[in-house]
User: What shape does this take?
Amino acid sequence: MVRVPKPTRDDLVSAARNPLAFIADRWTPDPGTVRRAALAALVMAVVIVVTGGAVRLTGSGLGCPTWPKCTEDSITATREMGVHGYIEFGNRLLTYVLCAAVGWAIVAARSQKPYRRGLTRLGWAQFWVVMSNAVLGGIVVLVGLNPYTVAAHFLLSTALIAVAAVMWHRTGEGDTAPRPLVGQAVRQLVAILVGVTLLLIAVGTVVTGAGPHAGDSSEVHRIPLNWENVTKLHAVLAWIVVTLTFALWFVLKAVDAPREPLNRTRDLFLVLLAQGVVGYVQYFTDLPEILVGAHMLGSCLVWIATLRVLLSLRERPADEVEGADVPGPAVTETPVAAQG
Assistant: This one.
């Protein structure tokens, strides 16, 4: 039986002062562990969006009528609140799971050898976005599901997904200066694609705020716009994104681009087609809740796929790592394709 040394007083003081450094001194995760930790944070960022949508689609948005407690007298949901209270409180509990996933990503990145400062900062950026969105989620409840705050809540989740996706991608790269794989014209086209995709997502939140799914069984204020007109604008933007993606694929083929940008563009095109099918079916079937939830998941996947196209346009050789405190092997793992 292996005897574990009893921690000394100096060890306890060191752990209290800087727990991340204390862990990093005693644990060195392999690159695969760091990558899995970053992926777990990304998956949980998507899960929290989908479960948040489920809260709204089941009319449970005010299942817990106050915040940070569930009621004035109870932190948790009570039996008298019924299923809506449990659904809303369950979504709040998932925030702690998200925090745990982000925390694991931070610890793994901080403990990797050589130390990667940029990767660790991406983990901390996720943490602060989660904290900000938790507060904003409380405000959403306190103002009675005002659609503008609901839209802001979703957009901040979109920012979280962006940071998590970048961190996941960066775990498969080194920390040297990025080297472009395509010309400036292609990079400008992708920048336009990313901008229009962001606009598409933002208009989607307006569709939600003006649409029939208010998030609660009681009367909830809606954005005073014609829902069908906003939906048509959303559809037009979606077709623009599809067209830009299609054009990008042909441009990449014409300039004989590397395989990675081509593969990521193909992935985006397929995700967009699936998302379009779900969008049109839900529109013509009077917005069944299950399809609206699937469309929210699709929105997250479209955003991740778009960011992966952007990130595939450059490479960071992994032969040396900038800012390393201790010499050691750099990450050489090749990024894998997005799932879903």
